[in-house]
């Protein structure tokens, strides 16, 4: 045909001709340009932190505070000068522990010297004075004025990174500390223009804004799908929502604790094993408040571990605080606003936990309790979050951390929980505690994504569903633990009266294990799976059982267990001619998808038969890219021919539509074509390289149409 694509002159790929995967700073894109235009001075290039950090053991927000002072620009000369300035400041003033004596000497010789160190303060009751300790400099007993402590009370609990002027004055009285605190300035912003923030937010489309937030926490948004981005942003809700209780359990290396130690000066990360009643709530011996009295977020790292010893008194106080936002100090009841975050690692797969126990199986025994778990507002499915890799970090512009941290802190007093009510109502049997949890998550996401309150009904529905799913994950596991809990139908009604049920992703993936029965009969498999609500996602077993299903199938991002073998092969089996339209068979991963489909067709047919496969696609416009595309298609055509499949490649006349038609009467409309899998590491040791079922998918839909019998 006249629109055939000529592959006869296309050479094979050469091994050394493939694109390098080495990361290089990308040129400024449209998002970076807008960030610098509308948030001038409040954004910084995120790869600069690594450039200046060196061996300084300081949180990212400390470095970004300095970068925000000197390198918050899109002018390369200004950035480079700023980097040099910050490096000079760190070299001169950051105190390395192994150089503490050298710094002490500088202070003595100069009489006064500025340092960057973590400062904590205690009250010396005997002498009735406040005394400071400097973590890296290694000095203590430094007198601090009461006014300084009253203005910076976090100095009393956990310590704060500060810029300090330290003076030296020797006294013959050996009891007098020679170090004098000349000045102290916490490393965080003092003020910002909130109205200007809202006005600038309105300049960004929703996708752009989400990407800017993802870049602000240091990640490259191109490496994440929509659902994965929202899961990352859920981690920020404790900073923007008061008394928010969040749990995240999942595999190691997914960055669960990073955001609570590096992102904000208002968060405190502590080891789960270090928690005590005096440290967290109040020391009844001296009446001193604990962490919840001063920090916006208290996160417990390494919280999981069945055999960990726990203090039952602490668990009881924590349950009361998480429910009532208060705790007792003697006869006095005190309120606090700190959000609680619990992060830990899992040691089993999701289906294993669902089959043998529950998704809270890894928690210490005292916390594996329905009363405690019912206080949790959202469960982040950590198993959906990819292991952190170097290519996932951003070189684009994001908010200077202390700027966005102050923005989030300023919104803690606001309540956006009712913004869905003009469009939707929650199910009538959702309990008060479930409703409160959904409201807090919804409010947090609204503040993060739509602080200017300009969200469409569709956008509101998206985050409402997300909020419901996170609470449902908590509640469904409680039902396994406590058979006195009442089952709940999670979902919402539109104003038209149409009901939309909400399921969790693991419920859709592993229905037989998810619905295996209630507590009290843990070994029983449920015989009655709840009827799927409109829009619920199907699972692979459904497709296998209904090979000749006709209609629409929708799948959500991060599902596993899907493959071309289950989705497409039942409809291609027996065909001698297959026609496929996909204008985007261009990149190597798209070529691999095509090869995997052709391999399935080849394996399913009789070796003595031949199949004609007509591929209609479009060529790249840029000559060098087109050359590589033709090389790839040539290899595919030649490889398929050896397996009895004749591939004809022609120009696709149909624009962006993607579909398959067979001579057996089936047409399959492909929303994303074959490009349904998320990008992965691509290592030979990655199980997804071998089996599609182990890969995470993007959100996509497929429509199966029987055109003729």
Notes on the structure:
The structure is a single chain. The radius of gyration is 29 Å and the shape is globular. It has 709 residues and is of the alpha+beta class. Strand 22, helix 25 and strand 23 form a beta-alpha-beta unit. The two termini are 28 Å apart. Helix 3 (60-70) packs across helix 4, helix 8 packs across helix 9 and helix 17 packs antiparallel against helix 18 (457-481). The longest helix is centred in the middle third of the chain and has 25 residues, at 457-481.
Please outline the helices and strands.
Elements: H1 30-38, E1 43-45, H2 48-53, H3 60-70, H4 76-93, H5 100-110, E2 112-124, E3 129-134, E4 139-144, H6 146-151, E5 160-168, E6 179-186, H7 194-201, H8 206-216, H9 226-234, H10 237-240, E7 245-250, H11 258-262, E8 267-271, H12 277-280, E9 282-283, E10 288-289, E11 297-301, H13 312-324, E12 326-329, E13 332-335, E14 339-345, H14 350-356, H15 370-373, E15 378-381, E16 397-399, H16 401-410, E17 424-426, H17 432-449, H18 457-481, E18 491-494, E19 499-501, H19 505-509, H20 511-514, H21 540-545, E20 551-555, H22 564-567, H23 569-572, E21 577-581, H24 588-604, E22 611-617, H25 623-641, E23 645-651, E24 659-662, E25 666-670, H26 687-690, E26 700-706
Parallel strand pairs: 7-14, 7-15, 8-11, 11-14, 21-22, 22-23
Antiparallel strand pairs: 1-16, 2-3, 2-5, 3-4, 5-6, 9-10, 12-13, 17-18, 18-19, 20-26, 21-24, 24-25, 25-26
Helix pairs in contact: 3-4, 8-9, 17-18, 24-25
């Amino acid at each position: 045909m006249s629109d055939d694509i000529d592959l006869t002159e296309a050479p094979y790929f050469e091994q050394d001709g493939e694109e390098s995967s080495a990361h290089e700073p990308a040129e400024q894109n449209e998002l970076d340009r807008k960030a610098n235009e509308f948030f001038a001075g409040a954004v910084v290039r995120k790869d600069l932190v690594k450039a200046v950090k060196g061996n300084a053991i300081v949180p990212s927000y400390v470095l970004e505070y300095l970068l925000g002072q000197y390198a918050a620009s899109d002018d390369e000369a200004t950035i480079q000068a700023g980097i040099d300035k910050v490096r000079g400041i760190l070299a001169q003033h950051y105190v390395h522990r192994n150089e503490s004596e050298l710094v002490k000497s500088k202070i003595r010789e100069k009489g006064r010297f500025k340092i960057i160190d973590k400062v904590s303060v205690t009250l010396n009751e005997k002498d009735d004075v406040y005394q400071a300790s400097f973590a890296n400099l290694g000095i203590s007993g430094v007198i601090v004025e009461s006014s300084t402590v009253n203005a910076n009370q976090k100095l009393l609990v956990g310590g704060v990174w500060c810029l300090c002027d330290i003076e030296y004055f020797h006294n013959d009285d050996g009891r007098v500390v020679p170090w004098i605190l000349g000045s102290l300035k916490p490393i965080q912003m003092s003020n910002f223009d909130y109205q200007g923030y809202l006005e600038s937010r309105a300049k960004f489309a929703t996708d752009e804004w989400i990407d800017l937030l993802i870049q602000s926490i240091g990640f490259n948004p191109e490496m994440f799908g929509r659902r994965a981005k929202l899961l990352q942003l859920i981690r920020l809700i404790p900073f923007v929502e008061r008394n928010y209780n969040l749990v995240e359990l999942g595999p190691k290396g997914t960055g669960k604790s990073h955001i609570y130690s590096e992102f904000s000066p208002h968060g405190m990360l502590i080891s789960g094993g270090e928690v005590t009643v005096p440290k967290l709530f109040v020391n009844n011996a001296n009446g001193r408040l604990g962490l919840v009295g001063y920090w916006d977020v208290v996160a417990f790292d390494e919280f999981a571990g069945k055999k960990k010893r726990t203090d039952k008194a602490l668990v009881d106080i924590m349950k009361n605080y998480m429910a009532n936002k208060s705790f007792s100090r003697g006869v006095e009841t005190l309120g606090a606003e700190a959000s609680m975050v619990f992060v830990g690692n899992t040691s089993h797969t999701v289906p294993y936990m669902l089959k043998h126990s529950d998704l809270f199986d890894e928690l210490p025994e005292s916390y594996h309790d329905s009363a405690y778990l019912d206080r949790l507002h959202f469960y982040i499915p950590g198993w959906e979050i990819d292991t952190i890799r170097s290519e996932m970090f951003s070189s684009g512009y994001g908010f200077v951390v202390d700027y966005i941290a102050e923005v989030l802190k300023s919104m803690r007093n606001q309540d956006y929980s009712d913004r869905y009510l003009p469009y939707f109502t929650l199910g009538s049997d959702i309990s008060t505690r479930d409703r409160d949890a959904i409201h807090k998550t919804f409010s947090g996401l609204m503040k993060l994504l739509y602080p200017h309150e300009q969200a469409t009904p569709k956008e509101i529905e998206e985050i409402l569903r997300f909020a419901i799913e996170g609470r449902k994950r908590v509640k469904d596991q409680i039902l396994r633990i406590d058979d006195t809990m009442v089952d709940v139908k999670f979902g919402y009604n539109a104003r038209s009266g149409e009901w939309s049920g909400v399921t969790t992703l693991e419920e859709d993936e592993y229905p037989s294990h998810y619905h295996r029965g209630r507590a009290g009969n843990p070994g029983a498999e449920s015989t009655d799976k709840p009827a799927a609500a409109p829009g619920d996602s199907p699972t692979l077993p459904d497709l296998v059982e209904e090979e000749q299903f006709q209609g629409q199938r929708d799948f959500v991002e991060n599902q596993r267990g899907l493959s071309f073998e289950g989705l497409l092969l039942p409809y291609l089996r027996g065909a001698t001619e297959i026609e496929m339209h996909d204008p985007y068979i261009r990149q190597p991963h798209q070529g691999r998808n095509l090869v995997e489909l052709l391999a399935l067709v080849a394996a399913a047919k009789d070796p003595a038969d031949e199949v004609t496969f007509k591929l209609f696609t479009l060529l790249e416009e840029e000559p060098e890219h087109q050359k590589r595309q033709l090389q790839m298609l040539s290899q595919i055509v030649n490889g398929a021919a050896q397996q009895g499949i004749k591939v004809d490649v022609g120009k696709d006349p149909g624009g962006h539509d993607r579909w398959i038609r067979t001579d057996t009467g089936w047409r399959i409309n492909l929303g994303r074509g074959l490009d349904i899998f998320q990008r992965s590491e691509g290592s030979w040791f990655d199980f997804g390289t071998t089996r599609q079922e182990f890969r995470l998918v993007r959100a996509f839909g497929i429509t199966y149409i029987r055109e003729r019998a």
